[in-house]
Amino acid sequence: MEEKAKERLYKKPEWLKVKLPIGEEYRKVRGIVDNNKLHTICESGNCPNMGECWGAGTATFMILGNICTRSCKFCAVATGKPLAVDKLNRNVLQNPLS
After folding, report:
1. Which residue has the higher pLDDT, 5 or 94?
2. 78-96 per-position pLDDT tens digit
3. Domain regions of the chain by residue span
4. How far apart, in whole angstroms, are the C-alpha atoms of residue 75 and residue 44?
């Protein structure tokens, strides 16, 4: 097969490529999540858009731990009975996270 034909065959379109998570807002959100041991749907679900959302300063938190009651086929979050409310996480999430 010709080299250019091979390249066209395997090259992904730009809209399908996931950009690396970088930037100040991403680092800020990452720090908040890590320092407070918070669970996010972004990490638990292996979301490919996490870098984009966190880069904009946005994250979605799971308030009952790392387990979800739903069983969405597109999501990687563990399914089952959620954990009890973690009072430490609840207090962190009640206050502004900035």
Report:
1. 94
2. 999 988 877 777 677 777 5
3. 19-94
4. 9
- Closest Cα partner for 30 from 64, 63, 53? 53
DSSP bridge pairs for 67 = 78
> For residue 52, what are its two tokens?
């984009």
Scanning the structure block, which residue is given the tokens 């069983």?
Answer: 71
C-beta separation of 58 from 25 below 8 A: no
CA 59, CA 39: separation in Å to the nearest integer? 10
Cα distance between residue 44 and residue 58, in whole Å: 15
pTM for this entry? 0.69
Residues in the chain: 98
27-47 per-position pLDDT tens digit:
999 999 999 888 899 899 988
